[in-house]
Amino acid sequence: MKKYVRVMLGQKSVYAKQCFEGNFIGADFDIYEDLTNKLPENWRDFNANYRPVWLENNPGKSKVAAGLACGMLWTISKGLNTGDVVLCPDGLGHYYVGEIDSDYYYKPGEILFHRRNVKWYPKMIERNAMSQALKNSSGSIGTTSELTQYSEEIERLIGGEKPPTLVSTDTTIEDPSVFALEKHLEDFLVQNWSQTELGNHYDIYEEEGELVGQQYPSDTGPLDILAISKDKKTLLVVELKKGRVSDNVVGQIQRYMGYVKDELAETNQDVKGVIIGLEDDLRIKRALSVTQNIEFYRYQVSFKLFKG
User: Fold this and answer.
1) Which domain holds residue 115?
2) Hey, which of 32, 73, 132, 293 has its CA 20 to 30 A from 126?
């Protein structure tokens, strides 16, 4: 299946024009060696090998930062396949769009020296032409961001079409799950984190002022939110479920918590979990009653449209 991925080309897209003119994308992440024949199929194996290297080159940094850096480097170097589509912001409100056109190669002494060749399309995408959901995902923090769920919209934009415009009417959405299903819950929670009960005790994980705890990658899928207590003693995994929550989410968040405990937590840190959903039921209540360190929170949304 073809993937669609947003790739940042240097901080604030500083190298975007050079990459476009040179027909490549790339990264560095302070790993100064040729990775040819050192890129396993499983990114967890790559992280296990190169987290210590990254930490040695970045003394004082956390395992969370190391895992993120190594995971994104693997994604660019190995996780993208020939033919996958990349969207690269130019820093001016547009995105270069192209297809991966080579395997990994190394260009020491140059910018973004871990590279892949790209066949750029002649047409750029304007950010203003994107739907709000695609804007949110393509504007997320981090070097890479998965956009495959918006593939149909991206293909329309490449073809010059804009997504349908929402027509404003005198309509009230009585069922808040309708709004939740529009994929805004996570972004809304992140933007309003400080106003929530969780925000009184935890901060979404940051590195050097950059928010890295949203959609943090793990070997069993991305964590919706990774937070850390204000005393730095507890890592919190937050799993968001739009609508009614079933008991299978307990096993899912336990897998995420296990990853955080094994791969990210320092020796003096605990790991806890929070499930957030619109409704719970007896099954999840039973499951959580015998599960340590996981809590359930309900969200409530009120949303109206007014004719302009």
Assistant:
1) 4-158
2) 73
pTM, full prediction: 0.75
Q: How far out from the chain centre does Cα 256 lie?
A: 15
Which of 110, 125, 158 represents a domain boundary (last residue)? 158
Question: For the chain, how many structural domains are there in total?
Answer: 2
Regarding whether 127 and 26 lie in a shared domain, the answer is: yes
Q: Looking at the structure, do residues 149 and 11 belong to the same domain, yes or no?
A: yes
Q: What is the CATH number of the domain that holds 71?
A: 3.10.590
Whether 216 and 246 share a structural domain:
yes
Q: Is the residue at 171 inside a domain?
A: no
How far is the C-alpha of 199 from the C-alpha of 189, rounded, in Å? 10
SS (H, E, C) 56-125: HHCCCCCHHHHHHHHHHHHHHHHHCCCCCEEEEECCCCEEEEEEECCCCEECCCCCCCEEEEEEECCCCE
For helices 248-259 and 282-289, give the axis angle rounded to 10 degrees: 40
Give CA–CA dist 9/112, Å, rounded.
Answer: 8
Q: Are residues 31 and 109 in the same domain?
A: yes
Q: Is residue 170 part of a domain?
A: no
Of 117, 113, 137, 142, nearest to 127 (Cα)?
A: 137
Length of the chain equals 308
